[in-house]
Amino acid sequence: MMNFLSIDMVATDWARAQFALTATKHRFFVPLTLVTNYYKTKSL
Hints:
Helices cover about 85% and strands about 0% of the residues. The protein is mostly helical.
């Protein structure tokens, strides 16, 4: 039987993995979106 501490650690690890994935996606897609919008409209 799992105790609450190990369940909390699994949830914490999952949350960290989700944060890392989101940060990685934003690192790539936000600048890409800004550049694409700039070239479409020639303004920020």
